Prior knowledge:
Bound molecules: zinc ion
Shape: globular
Oligomer: single chain
Distance between the termini: 9 Å
Amino acid sequence: MKFSQEKKEKILKALDAHKIKQICPECQGAILPMNLENSEQLLISFDRNGYSISISEGDIDFSPMAVITCPHCGYSKMFNLITLLGEEEALKA
Length: 93
Ligand SMILES: [Zn+2]
């Protein structure tokens, strides 16, 4: 799901409020700030049995994530939107 401009601004404001460094930890020579990706990413959880994943027709658990990516080397890190923005704001369409 694409972020609205309003939601992108709330995410960036929340990252700043939590003092999240937006400079890449991998290629610290890069002076460009990391970029917030335009779309929400879903971290999906499947039931598993040993090394087998069970894909059922039922509900699938997920965590909504914001991803920021280094424009220099591509290193990415993600933040759980429920933790960052609160459940109501995070799950708002
Ligand atoms: Zn980098």
